[in-house]
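Customer ticket, subject: "Can you confirm the structure for Cell division protein FtsI/penicillin-binding protein 2?"

Message body: Hello, I'm evaluating your service for our small team and ran a test protein. I'd like someone to confirm that this is what the system normally returns, since I don't have a reference to compare against.
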Amino acid sequence: MEGQTRRLKSLKSRRMWLVSIVLIIGFSALLWRLYWIQLGSVRSFSHEEMDLIARAEEQQSRVVVVDSGRGSILDRQGQALTGKKGWRLFASPFSQAQIEANRVKLGKLASQLGWTEKQLVHQLQSLDTPGSLSRPDGSELVLKEREAKAIRDLHIPGIDALESDDRWRDRGGRQVIGRVERNPFLIQRRFPDEWEQGLYDSHSRIGVSGLEAAFEPFLRADGSTLLTYTTDGQGRSLNGLEMKVEGSSVGEPYRLLTTLDQRIQSVAERALNDAAVQEGAVVVQDIASGDLLAMASRPLENDPQHDWNAWDNRALMETTPGSIFKTVVAIAALDTGKVKPSDQFHCNGHLGRYGLRDSKPDGHGTQTLEQAYANSCNIAFAQVAEKVGGKTIEEYANRLGLGSRILWSGKVWKEKNFRQLPQEQRGLIFSDEMTRRDQGAVAQTGIGQRDVRVTPLQAANMVTALFHDGKALNPRIVQEIQQRDGETLFTFQPHALAVEKRIKPETLQALRKMMQTTVSDGTAQSLKDSAVSMGAKTGTAQVGQSNERFNKWMIGFAPTDQPRYAVSVVIRSVEDSKDNRSHRVFRQVMEQVVQGEARD
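Agent reply: Thanks for trying us out. I re-ran your input and got the following:
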C-alpha cells in the first residue's frame, strides 16, 4: 500500500514538472513572438514601407519643430516671411495643479516679460500642444539673449527659451509660402536619387505646396532642431520637454528673395479679414515690372462641408469671371474696328433669342460702348460679342494672358520648364470648337458666363497689360535664389508672353478711360469719393448647379494720374447678388497700398 502511494506521488510530481516545463516553453514562445512583432518583423519591412515602431512611438511621443533648418523666404525688402532665427519662449500646456505648483516662478516670468500673471497663465492653459508663446496682443514674441538666459535660470518645468526660426507661425500669405510636412512616400516619388544618397530619410520634412514645394531642392533643410514631448493615452500632452537634433547635414540651404511686400501682403490679408470673407482672393501687382506684391487667399481653415482645403491658393484657381470679362470683349471690338466708340446699343432688359436678362430689369436704354461698359450692361455686350465672334474673342483673351498659365516659367539650370508656382490653373474661354461657333454661347461668353474661367492672378495681370502695349507679362513671385549670405545664385529675368500683333494704343487708352468712367458714373461709384483716384470694373457671375450663388469681382488700377498698382478681388460663391464686399476690399487695399507709400 505504501509503495503504491509513493508511486502515485512520484507520478503526480512528474506531471507537475511536465506542466511547468510546458508553461515555461509556451510563455517563452509568447515573449519571443511579441518581441518579433514589435521589433524583428517590423525591421524586416522594405525601406519603402511604414515603420510600425516609429508609428507607435509617435502615438506616445510627439514633435514640435523648433528650428526647421530650411532656407529663408524673404520679401522684396529682405524681410523674413518664414521667420527669422531668434530666441523664443516655448511651453507645454499647464494644468491648474501645475500652475499652483509653480506660482512663484510663473510670477517672476510674467514680470520679466512685462506681462500680468493672468496673461501668462491664460496662454499656458490655452495650449493644446507645446509651442511658442505670443505677446498678449497676438504679435510675435522674440527674446533678447539675456532675456532668454534669465528665463532659463528660473528652471520652470515645461517652459524653456530656445533658438528658433518659428517657421510655422502664420505671418500672412500662408498659401503662397506653402506647407511642409513629414512624408517619406512623397520624398521617394519626387527625389528618388536624393533618397538613395541619404539626403532625405523617413523623418525628413518636405514642402508639399506653394513656394516650399516648388523650391524644395533649394530650401531643403540641413538638419532640424526638434522638441519632443510625451502624450497620454488620449493624446494629451504631458508636462516635460526634450530637445534633439534630427536630419543629416546636406550643406547649407539657399534662400529665396521674393517680389512680395510684407506691408502690402498684410494690407490684403487685413482687408479680407475685415470683410469676413470666407472664400476668395486678393492679388496686388506692380504695374511697371509686373511683379506680384501680394497674394492673399481664403479660407484659412479646412471645411469638409464645403470641400474647402485651406492650403489651396484661390488666387491661382480658376472661376467664373462675370462682367470683368467684358474688358476683353471691349478691347477685341475696338481693336478690330468691328465696333466704334460712337456705336450705340439698345437694352430693354432682355435678349429674347438667347434668354439673357440684364441686372436692370427695365433695361439701360440706348448706350455707347463706353456707357455700356460702365453700366455693365449684359444685353449690350451680348450684342457686341455677336459682332466680334467667338474666335476673335478667344484670340484677344489669349493675348491678354487668359486661358493659359502665366506665372514665370523657364529654364533653371537643368530643369527646362521650371514653374515658380506649379499649382496655377490655366482658365478657359471656350470648351470646344462647336461652342466657339454657337452664337448663343458666344453671347453668354461676352458677359463672362458659359465656359469662361479666369484666375484672380490673370485678372490683375490683364489690367497690367493695359499699360504694356496690351502685352501680358509673366509675373514673377521670386526674383532670385541666393546663397545664405545673400550672394545671388540665380536671377529670374522678367519676360512677357510672345505675341505677333500689339493692341493699338488708342484701344488701350479708350479702355483705361472706360474704367475711370465706371468709377465716376457706373457700377463702381462706391470708389468715387476715395482720396485715391482709381479706374475699375465690377463683375457678378452666376455659379452653382442652379446658378443660385454668385462670384463678386472688382479689378482696376490706381492712382489714375500715375498708375502703379493693379488689383483684383474676388469673393466666391456668395448668396446675395448685391453683396458689395468686393468693393470694400478693393477700396481698402488700394487706399492703404497707395497712401502707405509715403510711410515706406
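A couple of notes from the result: Residues 36-60 have pLDDT under 50 and may be disordered. The chain has two domains: 59-257, 262-599. Feel free to reply with more questions.
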